[in-house]
Amino acid sequence: MPTILPMAIITIVASALLWGAFLYAYSGRTWRFVRLMVWGLPLSAVVNLFVKSPVGQGVGALAGIDPGQGLDTPVWFLVFLFLLAPVFEELIKVAPALLPSVRPHATTPDDALWTGLALGMGFGIGEAAYLGWQIALSSAYEQYAWYMFSGFLGERLVVVLLHGFMTALLMWFAARGRPVIGYLAAVGAHALLNSGAMLFQLGLVAEGVAGLSLLVVLVVAVIVFERIRPRYRRDESDVVYYSADD
Amino acid sequence: MSDAALSSFRPARSFGWAWLMAIMALVLAPMAPILVQPGVFSGDEAVGAWIAIAVIAPIVALMLLALVSLPQMRYDLERDALVISCGRMLRYRVPFSEITDVRRADLTPSLWSSMRMPGLALWTVPYADIGRVRMCATRMATGILLIEAGGMRYGITPADEQAFVTALMMMLPKRGH
User: Fold this and answer.
1) Pure H helices in chain B
2) Quick one: pLDDT band at residue B177, thresholds 50, 70, 90?
3) Do B105 and A238 count as a contact with CB atoms less than 8 A apart?
4) Which of A165, A145, A163 is nearest to A155 (CA)?
5) Is the Cβ pair B29, A153 closer than 8 Å?
6) Are strands B99-105 and B90-95 parallel, antiparallel or unpaired?
7) Is the separation of the CB atoms in A86 and A191 below 8 Å?
8) Which residues of chain A fall below pLDDT 50?
9) By CB count within 10 A, which of A95, B112, B114, B125 is most buried?
10) Sign of dihedral through CA atoms A225, A228, A232, A233?
């Protein structure tokens, strides 16, 4: 049994419960959007296996560049690799919104925001499963006990939420008639999120510094989300027992 | 019930304690390698691990304190004030003369950090719709009894809301008509 399996299961279950409950509570206590998370689940595996990997390897082969050369890799190819994930993942995450069964959930900017959040978080949970699978296939991690993967749990919990934010941003702009701006915003946030890991892999920054990009994107995402998300407070539903104004 | 309280009310039951324990487990999970195998890290990794412990330990301590204080949560009506408390870690005194509004409302939580989760809300909690509320409640956002006094808002969830409101109304200044 792969040693990461227990932690991968904990990560997926905890993410689904935590962010599913979050979406339910914040979207006005409805399951309407939570159900849409299912559509995002397989998309990480799809985009990694059938888009990013073939495109990356294909372009590398055409240019005659061997992967894994670190800083000896041509800069343009590093930038290309860096942009692969943001460009293609942000596209595929919103693809389910074109389906007739999903489209009616995203007709207004408010609904589009929750739909995007659901699709993105579904993608993030699927990505946790995909990455867990990839780690399980690698012999490099065999010597670690399952509890040594606790960093996987912490990072994926945050990343699932951020995937939701990025897709929500795209969908929100798209519902306001500005899909290109939304797409660029989502790709930019995604690129910023990945920048720390990229710089760490190139040996340019320490691991701790690399983690800062996650923190920066998280804080910015929360600020933006709090500004654009709909509020459902209805004063008329209050039961007033006492008011000095009466 | 404190000596000065004329009547005392318990909060509604909730599973806030279970959420508190689950979140505590999530906070502790990254520490699992150190707790299970203390010598697992060395050099720079050990320094990082100790920094992580220094950050996480106070959070866990606060959660433990909240957990043991939860059974002591109550709302006391004293001679001249409502006293909202949760053991030794939280105590708000709300003079009756300052209360200007009492209502039951559903609130919209914000993402900003605070001690609130399903089934529990403590201390000052920022809400997206009405701003900051001093909470001592066993619900996070729905069915909150909001009490406005002295420019502050307080949020509570008495188990027997009607009995609490009836008792509170008797203590408040009479409204003019």
Assistant:
1) 16-28, 32-36, 44-69, 161-171
2) very low
3) yes
4) A163
5) yes
6) unpaired
7) yes
8) none
9) B125
10) positive
